[in-house]
Amino acid sequence: METKTKHLTLGSPIPPKTEPLTLYSFEYCPFAQRVRLVLHAKGLKYQAVNINLKKKPEWYSSINTSEKVPALDIGDKIITESLDICNYLDKTYPTPALYSAEPEAAEKEKELIDKIGSVTSLFAKCMMNAKDKTPEEWVKDFLTTMEPFETELKLKGTKFFGGDNPGMVDYMLWPWAERAKVLDMLIGEKLPFSEDCIPTLHEWKKNMLMNTVVQAVYNGPEKCFKAIQLKYNTEDPDFDSI
């Protein structure tokens, strides 16, 4: 398991750099988790600096003007946006490669990654307005967004989108699969997904949970739900208490 660091807040001094790569993160942010997955998949050493997103340290705006996470300090510049960071890491540290070697297949993988945006947007809507729809309506919406992934993985006939091992598609999608049960907690009841819906993705999730890279940065839905509650319902949240 990855060693967790405390979330720095107002008044926290900026930590000295200890590694060539410094990741400014939030332990329970799915976008930051994407980067941590790729860093672990590449076997890269990095310094994790967790930021309390409710009360950010004063100096963080000078590192990343948007004050969002993730942000990766590579020494001579800061890279922001999770996919941009992950693509930089894959290009700069090519082993293991996380895209297919065949250009046409790699392009198809990038197109599939673009479709993850519909999943993340719907998750955010549910997180903020869980009671706006019935559980059945939410299930219908989520199945629609997941259909391209179910179809593609079924066509590939492999354990992962990356083949025998997870690739970029797997790591970019995983944080929301890990948080799937958070939806039940937000809505207040178990979503009525039938046993035979998206069976290929259900098997994929089981395989991902056994992957050592995923296990290294896994928090689970309960902790992620607690983080959401603290972030939106507490003025001075203690994320380190989760």
Defining key terms:
Glutathione S-transferase Yfyf (Class Pi), Chain A, domain 2; 242 residues; 50% helix; 11 helices; globular; alpha/beta; Glutaredoxin
What does it look like?
The structure is a single chain. The protein is of the alpha/beta class and 242 residues long. Helix content is 50%, strand content 7%. It has 11 helices and 5 strands; from the N terminus they run E-E-H-E-H-E-E-H-H-H-H-H-H-H-H-H. Strands 1-3-2-4-5 form a 5-stranded mixed β-sheet, covered by helices on one side. A hairpin with a 4-residue loop joins strand 4 and strand 5. It starts with 6 loop residues before the first strand and ends in a 9-residue tail after the last helix.
Secondary-structure content class: alpha/beta
Number of strands: 5
Uncertain spans: none
Beta-strand percentage? 5-15%
Roughly what is the average pLDDT, rounded to an integer? 96
Task: Please name the CATH topology of the largest domain.
Answer: Glutathione S-transferase Yfyf (Class Pi), Chain A, domain 2
Number of domains: 2
- Characterize the overall form: globular
What does the largest sheet look like? Answer: 5 strands, mixed
Count of helices? Answer: 11
What is the C-alpha radius of gyration, as a whole number of Å? 18 Å
Oligomer: single chain
Sequence of secondary-structure elements = EEHEHEEHHHHHHHHH
Please identify the top-level CATH class of the largest domain. Mainly Alpha
Strand order across the biggest sheet? 1-3-2-4-5
The helix content, as a percent range, equals: 40-55%
| Terminal residue distance | 16 Å
Level-2 CATH architecture of the largest domain: Up-down Bundle
